[in-house]
Write a structure and sequence with these properties.
Strand content: 15-25%
Order of helices and strands: HHHEHEEEEEEHEEH
Distance between the termini: 25 Å
Largest sheet: 5 strands, antiparallel
Shape: globular
Helix content: 25-40%
């Protein structure tokens, strides 16, 4: 996504190694890198903040402390086991910085937790709608909804990713106000300059729950242009 974005921005440089040294008037945009280069002085999305936000546990902990609506979570195996015994659906994360559902295990009342301890457990939220809201410098620049892929066999109803039968759609899009508010609050809570927020919305409660914030989201089509426009404006302000 960073490479595609650079092409839309007329060839702005994308660097993946330590040889790059920014000049005084360079605006550095960090797309998901968690390693702090020794040359870093300023830029968008500080690597140390990206590292904390990409860790699902530290991110949830920080967002909760800042008043962001998030699902119930725990790192205690016994508490998670009690949730399952009480009939709750629990998502165990074996990898704290995984994406696209990698490392996630679903536990239900007929599948008790094994002795293996996951570093994080969250209560699954039963919800019909799930959104991805892109926030840049306290402003929403794009929104899409996760919907079922047509003619996809063996769709996963617990983890909504492309490879599990879900796609991002923007047609006939109606996004509740609480979803927008929680998205902005989540990015601010993590002190990020930009991020793509995955949010579950429960109609019965009229309440939004932030699932995670992506600091290097996969982007395409309209979303690429939205980020490009936001970066152009930021560059004008910076210069």
């Amino acid at each position: 996504s960073a490479k595609v974005l650079s092409r839309v921005l007329n060839g702005l440089k994308v660097r993946f190694n330590g040889k790059f040294r920014p000049k005084l008037r360079h605006l550095v945009v960090n797309w998901g890198n968690i390693h702090l280069p020794n040359w870093w002085r300023f830029g968008l999305n500080h690597p140390l903040l990206v590292m904390k936000s990409s860790n699902k546990y530290t991110a949830l902990l920080k967002m909760k402390s800042e008043g962001v609506s998030v699902p119930e979570f725990t790192i205690n195996h016994e508490e998670a086991a009690k949730w399952v015994a009480d009939g709750k659906i629990v998502v165990g994360r074996r990898i704290l910085n995984g994406s696209k559902g990698i490392g996630c295990v679903i536990y239900t009342d007929d599948q008790l937790l094994p002795e293996f301890n996951c570093p994080l457990y969250t209560k699954h939220l039963r919800h019909k709608h799930e959104y991805r809201v892109h926030v840049f410098k306290n402003q929403i620049i794009d929104m899409v909804e996760k919907r079922k892929r047509n003619r996809f066999m063996n769709r996963d109803h617990w983890i909504r990713s492309y490879h599990k039968g879900w796609v991002f759609c923007r047609d006939n899009l109606i996004v509740p106000e609480c979803v927008k508010q929680e998205a902005i609050k989540a990015v601010n809570a993590l002190s990020l300059d930009f991020g793509a927020v995955d949010i579950a919305y429960r109609e019965k409660e009229n309440k939004a729950y932030v699932l995670e914030v992506n600091s290097a989201p996969g982007i395409e089509g309209t979303t690429i242009n939205k980020y490009a426009d936001a970066l152009r404006k930021e560059l004008n302000v910076y210069l």
